[in-house]
Design a protein that fits this description.
With about 500 residues, the chain is α/β, with parallel strands linked by helices. It folds into four domains: about 5-95 and about 255-320, Rossmann fold (3-Layer(aba) Sandwich), CATH 3.40.50; about 95-250, Rossmann fold (3-Layer(aba) Sandwich); about 340-405, no CATH class; about 410-505, Arc Repressor Mutant, subunit A, CATH 1.10.10. Helix content is about 45%, strand content about 15%. A hairpin with a 5-residue loop joins strand 3 (about 70-75) and strand 4. The structure holds glutamic acid. Glutamic acid binds near residues 10 and 208. Glutamic acid (GLU) binds near residues 11, 44, 208 and 222.
Length: about 500
């Protein structure tokens, strides 16, 4: 039987979750699920300076919200406390320091690693010189040459030290990446990487290799930025005499100008996208296609479909352009497919944040501008107006504002369709007013309004645009909005007549 597939997502708790990391999670998740494997969340918190309080909890919540479940590692309970589950723990690296110490000692004993007592000042100076000579920054190996006695003496004197990997001076390090294929690096270009820092904490390199081995990780799937570190990891596996996992490095995420996706050019945190009202399913669908190719023209994938189809051989080698227009398009698609009650619930915080409504009790809301009371059913009708057009939920506040405010502000020129005169606008609005005035409140349904107004236009021989455009503008005050029939149905008779009257007043 082949070895069980075990993969891990191993973030450092340094703040927010980058979109690139979300892709790493997704691909690991899909690969595990597709192969009936295990997916593990391991926290790599060995860089104390970069630790940000609360980021583990935040991260776990996002993964949960996105529906990307894992079977082992670090979880968060109802009281927002972390706990761990699985046979290979602890899964938080700062709780594994004794393990790393043991393995560092082993490397030193086998002469694969050495103590380095160089001071920060010396290292700084060395770096400067190398910079001036345009050389790659590298440790010059001074402490490699220390005799056993010298080392003992310095240790005895409690001189601060780090432990470095003793990279062979000759030969090559080779490995096979599933995407980048064979990679062969000259050992003399590999730095004597620090494995253990002076504070007794391991570096990422040592800790991740030790943990990937001890946690039986079969496949390491991570961002391309870690590719240059992999030769060091291979040397460590060799030094320990351990079998290496399979490596897959995922292509970079790029801005449309092909630069690396960075905070400077826009939002990169998953949290920011969720706040803007992108739906988890749409985000995952978008992220899936950033680097994975279904080899067909298909673009829409549910999570189940992704699990069925995902395969590492579909991962591209070239950087993936992070195109927010495509994300908007995809999100719009998911919004349109959504059940209206569910969508309305999701829109609610945005309506409240935009100061349009306030919740006063269960199923009771107050329109802040007019003081009217409305219920959830009414809000559903309002949201339905925008469901077809909405790209992200955060747009709802601005786009339905016209429903909730009493006095619309717009220029009278906006009422003009093509080359109409104000006189014509006035006449047509008056005709609509007279016709709608005759109706009962209960006849203010979209279909009925459409029928009544179309009949009117036919009888009077009025061109559709010449009546419907001024009417729509009078009802919304906007250049672009849903059509006049559905808007009128949501507004109701009283408001419709009031707004048409205002339009007539404007062009008088
Ligand atoms: N802790 C690393 C990070 O923050 C993990 C890299 C890896 O997956 O090996 O991304």
């Amino acid at each position: 039987m082949s070895k069980k597939i075990r993969v891990r997502f191993a973030p450092s708790p340094t703040g927010y979750l980058h979109m690139g990391s979300l892709r790493t999670v997704l691909y690991n998740y899909l690969f595990a699920k597709h192969n009936d494997g295990d997916f593990i969340l391991r926290i790599e918190d060995t860089d104390k300076a970069r630790y940000v309080e609360g980021s583990i909890e935040n991260l776990v919540k996002i993964l949960d919200f996105m529906g990307l479940e894992y079977s082992e590692g670090v979880f968060v309970d109802q009281d927002n406390k972390t706990f761990q589950k699985g046979d290979f723990g602890p899964y938080i690296q700062s709780q594994r320091l004794d393990i790393y110490q043991k393995y560092v000692d082993e490397l030193i004993k086998k002469d694969y690693a050495y103590y380095c007592f160089c001071s920060q000042e010396r290292l700084e100076e060395m770096r400067k010189k190398q910079q001036l000579q345009k050389l790659a920054p590298m440790y010059d190996g001074k402490c490699r040459e220390l005799s056993k006695d010298e080392v003992q003496k310095l240790l005895y004197e409690k001189t601060p030290y780090v432990v470095r990997l003793k990279v062979p001076k000759e030969g090559f390090t080779e490995f096979e990446d599933l995407i980048y294929k064979k990679i062969k690096i000259e050992n003399k270009t590999i730095d004597d990487q620090v494995l253990m820092k002076s504070d007794g904490f391991p570096t990422y390199h040592l800790a991740s290799v030790v943990d990937d081995h001890l946690m039986n990780i079969s496949h390491v799937i991570r961002g391309e930025e870690w590719l240059p570190s992999t030769p060091k990891h291979i040397l460590l596996y060799k030094a320990f005499g351990w079998k290496t996992p399979e490596f897959t490095h995922l292509p970079l995420l790029l801005n449309p100008d092909k630069s690396k996706l960075s905070k400077r050019q826009g939002d990169v945190a998953v949290e920011d996208y969720l706040k803007k009202g992108y739906l988890p399913k749409a985000l995952l669908n978008f992220i899936l296609l950033l680097g994975w190719n279904p080899k067909t023209e298909e673009e829409i994938f549910s999570l189940e479909e992704m699990i069925k189809r995902f395969d590492l051989s579909g991962v591209n080698k070239t950087g993936a352009i992070f195109n927010t227009e495509k994300l908007d398009w995809l999100n719009g698609l998911y919004v349109r497919k959504m059940d209206i009650s569910k969508l309305t619930k999701l829109c609610m915080p945005y309506l409240i944040k935009a100061n349009l409504i306030k919740e006063i009790s269960t199923n009771k809301y107050k329109i802040l501008n007019t003081g009217e009371e409305i219920d959830f059913e009414y809000l559903k009708k309002v949201v339905l107006l925008e469901q077809e057009r909405m790209k992200k939920l955060s747009e709802i506040g601005e786009s339905v504002k016209f429903i909730f405010i009493d006095k619309l502000e717009y220029e009278k020129e906006l009422l003009i369709w093509k080359k109409m005169s104000f006189e014509e606008v006035k006449n047509n609005l008056e005709l609509a007013y007279q016709e709608l005035e005759k109706l009962n409140e209960k006849d203010f349904t979209k279909n009925n309004l459409e029928k009544v107004l179309r009949d009117l236009m036919e009888q009077e021989g009025i061109n559709t645009g010449k009546l419907l455009w001024p009417l729509r503008v009078a009802l919304t005050g906007l250049k672009g909005s849903p059509g006049p029939f559905e808007v009128a149905a949501v507004l109701g008779k009283e408001k419709v007549l009031k707004r048409i009257k205002k339009g007539i007043e404007l062009v008088k």
